[in-house]
Structure to design on (814 residues):
């Protein structure tokens, strides 16, 4: 079995961890900010050191290329370098820099793969600055258009295209191209592997995700004299919805999860009832039918809460993903690689969203998980050990090479 | 009985309604904005037309003065010209412009009062841009310091002193001076007078108000894989608190009222659990003991909700006002004036906060209410009829003159 340069991988991860530091040991490297520009420049510099060409497409996706013995669609490895506001040092980052380490190792070994191998850094996987998440892989896969992506606006009113041009990463390449296969290494973002002491998670499928953006409409009025039975406070409608979401999540635990992740109101000031509120609801379950049932129960309870609050409500946007089943051949490459390296492994489902979900629509795709300590993620305390990074990247290396070198 | 020029009063109110128009027929004239500067300039121009001197104090409070036959502390009439984000055309405004009409009428009549009469426009009664409300009358009455007022900051990070200087209304006069008595005319902001068809409300006391700012502290984590039983989402803690506040309000209705008026969270984004939230709670009841009991029940339920949400919570700020009892002699002047004018009247309590609450600590004070249609206020649909304005201002006129001319 091939093995990577573990020290080099860890040094590379730690160098990334210096770019866009948070306040508590993690990262705040929101997409298309100057910090994101800086880590992109660093990735380009690393590629240049080894003579790997870098292509940037119109959505800012970056492709680091190792040529193969023959041309043709590349084997693609990827993830993302952007983070949440309170992000960790490994979420997404391990996938990109682990991919870079695969190329570096092959170069060290003088191993020219039969097919080209590329490593992609997807723009805005997190959706923390521009919503929704996984936006640029969605365009790459034809799920959304490039104009739609350019028109997304952040909470400060900045248009995505302007932010992309400001950091100099609106590339010339068209968005989307044929790909032989897509491999994604990611930290698990749940405590299962870590709690059970297992080295590698082989992801066979995703949790069904149901997203809802609910809008509540009430009426402004004075917080003092307005009789309780004449009030239409949108904050109360949204709060009933948040509580219902959480309680349905608990009712379906441990498999089901439901989150009220965002609640905004207007005018949202002391002295006045709010006429407007929005609630973002996120439902996940390994079984599609159960996810749909959770969503329907939440909607029924939102209707009850809105009636109590005397506010109108409507679902203004929905999103659905995660029911992908990954490519059995690629899944088996991970299993064989882990077995060959003597690592413990288990099959699992991904609960978080990943760019691989969209990629599975256009190419054979599979995700590989490494443990993360206590399952903590989207938090600056997110952490892994060098051994976690090494083991998973060794599996990635052998699986990718097996794919790239097949007849 | 003396009577005002009703047409002139209405024209003056309608001129004010042109300054800082909202989007639905009301006003958006937040304190210390250019629109507030414009209406202040208009008040100064109106005063100049009739030769009334205008003094501005260090907090931006404006005093329009009619000299009396003798000097000494003035009889003061006042309210405010600032509005909520979705404000009406009469809330506060009727009190200031009704006061101006009192001065104009006395000038028309050649009636020189024994004591000087002044009309005050208090800075930032609403608290909609800079919190808390009734800030400048609090400083006038020695409840807060002027430096404290200057240091308040709006949601855009603008310091109050800078906003005050930007519109040119940081005056030279010291904040606070002896006052013979304080009269405030205000729309009721509740539907009682309007529903019962009564012309005049004589305010004898205020509702006890208990304000709370609660902070919830949780932990950021991923909305997807994080197990339900490991979540500490501050939005859920705050939402339980908002629901509890509303339900306690309903349990104590119709006398008691409780409002969740503001709910903010951070990061408050899709994909992540929020580590921070704040909830503003406003409790009102005519009986002090019941207001305290409502507050305590809400706090107990907030503790339960925080436990379910696994978040920490603390009360970071509290405020208390409204238990003032108004001056019996002034209250009786309103009653006698209404009776003399043949208007129907009833004694009532004020549920909203007013600058009169603070003024009652330093001078004999009483508030007069006029009906507002359907009790709608802090809403652009707020409305009154010309007759409502005329009747109430006639009562104000006769009560003020009786006070100013007493031996």
């Amino acid at each position: 079995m091939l093995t990577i340069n573990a020290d080099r991988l860890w040094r590379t991860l730690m160098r990334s961890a210096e770019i866009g530091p948070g306040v508590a040991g993690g990262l705040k490297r929101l997409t298309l900010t100057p910090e994101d520009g800086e880590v992109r420049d660093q990735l380009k510099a690393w590629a240049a050191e080894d003579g790997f060409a870098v292509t940037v497409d119109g959505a800012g996706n970056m492709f680091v290329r190792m040529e193969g013995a023959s041309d043709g669609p590349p084997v693609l490895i990827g993830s993302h370098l952007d983070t949440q506001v309170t992000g960790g040092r490994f979420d997404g980052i391990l996938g990109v820099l682990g991919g870079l380490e695969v190329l570096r190792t092959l170069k060290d070994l003088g191993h020219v793969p039969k097919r080209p191998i590329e490593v992609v850094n997807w723009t805005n996987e997190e959706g923390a600055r521009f919503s929704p998440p996984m936006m640029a892989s969605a365009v790459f896969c034809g799920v959304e258009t490039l104009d739609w992506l350019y028109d997304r606006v952040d909470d400060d009113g900045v248009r995505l295209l302007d932010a992309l041009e400001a950091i100099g990463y609106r590339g010339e390449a068209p968005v989307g191209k044929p790909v032989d296969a897509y491999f994604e290494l990611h930290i698990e973002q749940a405590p299962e592997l870590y709690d059970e002491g297992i080295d590698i998670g082989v992801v066979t499928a995703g949790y069904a995700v149901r997203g809802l953006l609910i809008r509540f409409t009430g009426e402004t009025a004075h917080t003092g004299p307005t009789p309780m039975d004449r009030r239409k406070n949108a904050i109360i409608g949204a709060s009933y919805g948040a509580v219902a979401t959480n309680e349905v999540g608990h009712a379906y635990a441990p498999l089901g999860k439901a989150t009220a992740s965002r609640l905004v109101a207007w005018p949202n000031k002391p002295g006045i009832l709010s006429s407007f509120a929005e609630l973002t609801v996120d439902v996940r379950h390994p079984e599609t039918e159960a996810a749909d049932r959770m969503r329907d129960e939440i909607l029924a309870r939102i209707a009850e809460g809105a009636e109590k609050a005397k506010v109108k409500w409507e679902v203004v946007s929905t999103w659905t993903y995660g029911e992908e089943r990954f490519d059995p051949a690629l899944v088996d490459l991970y299993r064989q690689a882990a077995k060959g390296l003597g690592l413990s492994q288990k099959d699992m489902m991904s609960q978080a969203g990943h760019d691989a979900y969209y990629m599975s629509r256009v190419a054979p795709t599979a995700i590989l998980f490494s443990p993360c300590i206590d399952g903590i993620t989207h938090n600056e305390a997110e952490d892994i050990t060098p051994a976690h990074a090494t083991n998973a990247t060794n599996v990635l290396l052998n699986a990718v090479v097996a794919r790239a070198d097949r007849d």
Observations:
- Chain A is about 35% helix and 20% strand.
- Chain A touches chain B through 75 residues (CB under 8 Å).
